[in-house]
């Protein structure tokens, strides 16, 4: 059984409109490069909610499997192995069997192999359950991924589908890579991005799609702060209408 030990953390800056929130899930889904992680983190901080980075869970499983030479293309072996791993999220830090893997899971090697784990139904079921467990413990959560508003938290009070044009997403990725000293052309990045989008949109379970009741925000011409503000306002609005 997958295990999670997710500690409580809190931020002092709680905006007044949502101060009295008793239980709320803000689900932010969207393709890679739409800005989900940065935005979701900032929204969580602004609201005093806990942040759940579900991509980190998938990455941690791939990392573990690669380290132990587990054959990724053997679904049953992979899921048996995955179910025995202990993933712990602590603020922005990710631990795998008590080893910190926060930075080690963010490599191109992991990104290229992630589809083996993301396509594996047993692993998805287990990680989805861990995510629900996280939400039960945390109560107020901002979660981000591909399937949060559709499969994992279909009843989430507030759902956002964050998008950006393919070129803008690739441009952002190029900047991110350049900051790490990696140089790739826009075409190379676009090609990788298209491949990943295709896989994320077409997997049999947990595929990337907008929930019917999600609010779509295209981030192309918006600053991060503007996107965060829109989501925080939406949360406040939902809070008012549901109380
Ligand atoms: O968000 P991040 O880029 O870290 O996610 C890595 C990969 O994990 C995604 O490309 C996607 O294939 C997979 N993923 C998923 N479901 C989620 C979160 C991530 O399938 N909820």
Key traits:
9 strands, single chain, four-stranded mixed sheet, Rossmann fold, binds cytidine-5'-monophosphate, alpha/beta, globular, 243 residues, five-stranded parallel sheet
Quick gist of this model?
The protein is built from nine helices and nine strands. By secondary structure, it is an alpha/beta fold. It has two domains: 24-49 and 140-237, 3-Layer(aba) Sandwich (Rossmann fold); 55-138, P-loop containing nucleotide triphosphate hydrolases (Rossmann fold), CATH 3.40.50.
CATH architecture of the largest domain: 3-Layer(aba) Sandwich
Structure summary, number of beta strands: 9
Query: Into which percent range does the helicity of residues fall?
Result: 40-55%
Rounded to the nearest angstrom, the distance between the terminal CA atoms is 37 Å
Characterization of this structure:
It is a single chain. By secondary structure, the chain is α/β, with parallel strands linked by helices. It folds into 2 domains: 24-49 and 140-237, Rossmann fold, CATH 3.40.50; 55-138, 3-Layer(aba) Sandwich (Rossmann fold), CATH 3.40.50.300. Helices cover 49% and strands 16% of the residues. The protein has helices spanning 36-47, 54-67, 75-83, 108-118, 121-138, 148-152, 166-179, 186-202, 224-242, and strands at residues 3-4, 24-29, 50-53, 86-90, 93-96, 99-100, 140-145, 158-163, 215-218. It has a 5-stranded parallel sheet with strand order 3-7-2-8-9, with helices on both faces. A 4-stranded mixed sheet has the order 1-4-5-6. Helix 1 crosses helix 9, helix 2 (54-67) packs across helix 4 (108-118) and helix 7 (166-179) crosses helix 8. It is globular. The protein binds cytidine-5'-monophosphate. Cytidine-5'-monophosphate binds next to helix 2, helix 4 and helix 8.
């Amino acid at each position: 059984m997958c295990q999670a030990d997710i500690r409580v953390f809190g931020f002092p800056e709680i905006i007044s409109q949502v101060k009295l929130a008793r239980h709320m899930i803000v689900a932010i889904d969207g393709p890679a490069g739409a800005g989900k992680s940065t935005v979701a983190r900032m929204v969580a901080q602004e609201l005093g909610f806990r942040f759940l980075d579900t991509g980190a869970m998938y990455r941690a499983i791939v990392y573990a499997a690669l380290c132990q030479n587990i054959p990724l293309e053997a679904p049953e072996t992979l899921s048996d192995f995955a179910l025995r791993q202990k993933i712990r999220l602590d603020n922005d830090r990710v631990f795998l069997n008590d080893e910190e893997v926060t930075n080690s899971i963010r490599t191109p090697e992991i990104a290229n192999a992630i589809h083996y784990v993301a396509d594996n139904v047993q692993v998805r079921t287990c990680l989805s359950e861990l995510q629900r467990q996280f939400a039960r413990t945390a109560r107020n959560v901002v979660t981000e991924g591909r399937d949060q508003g559709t499969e994992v938290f279909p009843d989430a009070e507030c759902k956002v589908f964050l998008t950006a044009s393919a070129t803008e997403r690739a441009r952002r990725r190029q900047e991110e890579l350049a900051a790490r000293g990696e140089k790739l052309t826009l075409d190379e990045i676009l090609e990788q991005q298209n491949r990943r989008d295709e896989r994320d949109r077409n997997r049999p379970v947990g595929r990337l799609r907008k929930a019917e009741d999600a609010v779509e925000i295209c981030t192309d011409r918006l600053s991060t702060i503007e996107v965060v503000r829109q989501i925080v306002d939406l949360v406040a609005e939902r809070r008012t209408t549901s109380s």
